[in-house]
Write a structure and sequence with these properties.
By secondary structure, the chain is an alpha+beta fold. It contains eight helices and four strands. A four-stranded mixed sheet has the order 2-1-3-4. A hairpin with a 2-residue loop joins strand 3 and strand 4. The chain binds FE2/S2 (inorganic) cluster.
């Protein structure tokens, strides 16, 4: 398994913090998934060996938790919320519009590995649905029409700079910098 030395050092430092080695399993899985994009069989065996467990003990965690993966998602991973508040505001149509524009069905990775879509439970922004996440950026009120525009911007590499689609996370950063800029500077004595 091609794991960086930095991640291996983090894992080695993490294990002694738990009263039992096996309790470190989820944290180790997350560290490896962050780096490799997924936990394949080789990674399962490696973790099991580290924690003196059987590979099946690791595999059962990966198949249980929806955020854990045996195969990596696409280079750009799109999540669409399908839980009731977003569904009532049209998230099924949003997901279909994204599938059509990006050429990939939800739950799959496009053949060239560029995009994957996940139609999943609550993304924790229920008042502003339909909610769509592109990697770690959250976009609110994305109806099917907006989803088509968002997909076009994503494909042309212009989404991040778009003024029309400002992610929740970027809006927060912008608000904070405005606040800092508007604070009176301390006077020099
Ligand atoms: S219901 Fe869609 S974000 Fe919670």
């Amino acid at each position: 398994m091609n794991l960086s030395e930095e991640t291996i050092l983090k894992i080695d430092a993490l294990i002694p913090k738990y009263p039992e080695k096996r309790s470190a399993a989820l944290m180790i899985i997350h560290l490896i998934q962050d780096e490799l994009g997924a936990i394949d069989l080789e990674a399962c065996e490696w973790i099991a060996d580290k924690l003196e467990l059987q590979p099946i003990n690791i595999q059962e965690l990966i198949t249980f938790y929806p955020m854990l993966r045996e195969k990596p998602w696409g280079k750009k991973h799109i999540r669409v919320c399908r839980t009731l508040p977003c569904a009532l505001r049209g998230s099924y149509a949003t997901c279909q519009a994204l599938e059509k524009k990006l050429g990939v069905k939800e739950g799959h990775v496009r053949d060239d590995g560029e995009y994957s879509i996940e139609f999943m439970e609550c993304l924790a922004d229920c008042g502003e649905g339909p909610v769509v996440m592109v990697d770690e950026e959250t976009y609110e009120n994305v109806d099917s029409g907006k989803a088509e525009e968002l997909a076009d911007l994503l494909k042309s590499g212009k989404l991040e700079k778009s003024k029309k689609f400002v992610s929740y996370e970027n809006a927060l950063v912008q608000d904070t910098s405005l606040e800092v800029a508007s604070k009176p500077k301390p006077s020099k004595k």
